[in-house]
Amino acid sequence: MTIKLKKQVIEILSVLKKKKTEQIASLLANELNIDYIVLMAAVNDLIEYDLGGFKEEEINQISLNDEGRKYLEEGLPENQLLEIMRVSNAKEISMEDLLSKSKLDKHIFYIGLSNMRKNRWIAQSKATGENKIFLVTEKFPETDVEKFLKSFKAQPTRDYSKLSKSELIQYDLLNKRKLFTKQNKTQRSIFLTDKGKSIKMSDIKELKYISKITSEMLSSGTWRNYDLKPFDVSKSGPTLKAGKIHPLIRLINEIREVFISMGFTEIRGPIVESAFFNFDALFQPQDHPARELQDTFYLNNPKFAKLPEKDRVLAVKATHENGGDSKSLGWRYQWDENIAKQTVLRTHTTATTMRRLAQFYRTNDKTPVKVFCIDRVFRNEKLDKSHLAEFTQIEGIVIDENVNLSDLIGLLSEFYRKIGFKKIITRPGFFPYTEPSMEVSVYYDKLGEWLEMGGSGIFRPEVTYPWGIKDPTRVLAWGQGLERIAMLYYDRQDMRDLYINPIKWLRQQPY
Ligand code: PHE
């Protein structure tokens, strides 16, 4: 029976057959100049055909540390000192002289000296008043410690458990001098089974793996001469760290889908907005506290914005001063066009909603109009884990005849249900531009809590009449922050994370 093996496996098998004894895997890999992993993969193939195997053994590897390697090069301190005395042909030398000639560290010098004494090479005497060293022998055969040290020249690492008794004594001596490092390792040895030992190389054929069949191979039939490379489909591929859509954009896209599925169309508006659309058109009096600098970023350049059609500006002016044709009494003050012309960074997307009402008038639109806006707004807030100065609002409006508060509640329930909150409650609220106004809270299962999400209401006649939207046509509106939902959705405790972009969190996100 012939066995088919990859080329490299055949080579390794023949090496093992020649060597006859089992082989330490890491040494064999070195010898064959192949990767350890490649070798072990080949052994796996041998195992598959019951030709070979490997066993594991815990070994304590010992090797010289930096200091030990230095002594291997330059000799142990005692040998260095001896060499100095022998070179200068000095039978005796003062301790100071020897120290200065040796250029050794004082501490190392004394270790060397003490070993010289132990080796019975020297004697010390203070008889002349000077601390002197005398050589007391003429022969200096290589010491056992030296022999042991030198054995690391040929074999930089040795197996502790394989040291002989006398080597162990030398090891202990040098180890006390802190010249070694010891490491526990699992060592694998590769062997051939009886079948592996007896099989003839002529019974082994080379496996010619291909991973693709071309049309030529199919038509000529040569594909039969090849072996198809098996694929392990249960193995996962490498992790990709490719670019992906940012979680906030992903959430925005999902919310977009929700609006679109409910028949809404998206609108966008400028970030640099006039106070007119941001405040005045929303019936916020010109001395309203929200216009104060601490909330709103006013711009110096451009300092003023263009206002819409003169007659519409006058209509808004009239609602502020006396209610215009909205049947309201208005705020009863002198409205100033220059204040309305000031430029601001949009503080809410309701400014963009107002531009849509202006367009409704201009193009004489038909009802119903259902639009939404998900976009960036700016407020001069102190930053903390639940406040940003630059954030995103989600806003939806419906312009239609005879729509009322229950329609609004229905819309809200549907919207929040679609973005994942099954229960909502509404409470009376206040906005200068809606009447009635409602605060919306949703029930968050995971925390078992009601969370306030945003505001809603029916636009006041003072807001809609200047744009020709008159009873029984009304505007239902709601708006809220995106980041609040994002924090729940992505389980982030700090809103700033959404923009600081912790790389670990982003890597966990799906594509
Ligand atoms: N503009 C309001 C805000 O910024 C939200 C809102 C929108 C309220 C529409 C009522 C109607 O909080």
Description:
With about 500 residues, this protein is of the alpha+beta class. It folds into 3 domains: about 5-65 and about 150-205, no CATH class; about 65-140, Arc Repressor Mutant, subunit A, CATH 1.10.10; about 250-505, Bira Bifunctional Protein, Domain 2 (BirA Bifunctional Protein, domain 2, 2-Layer Sandwich). It contains 21 helices and 20 strands. It has a 7-stranded mixed sheet, with helices on both faces. The chain has a 4-stranded antiparallel sheet with strand order 2-8-3-7. Strands 4-6-5 form a 3-stranded antiparallel sheet. A hairpin with a 6-residue loop joins strand 5 (about 120-125) and strand 6 (about 130-135). Helix 5 packs across helix 7 (about 105-120), helix 8 crosses helix 9 and helix 12 packs across helix 19. About 25% of the residues are buried. Phenylalanine binds near residues 350, 395 and 455.
What level of helicity do the residues show? 25-40%
Spatial strand sequence of the major β-sheet: 12-15-16-20-19-18-17
CATH C-level class of the largest domain is Alpha Beta
Total helix count? 21
Task: Characterize the overall form.
Answer: elongated
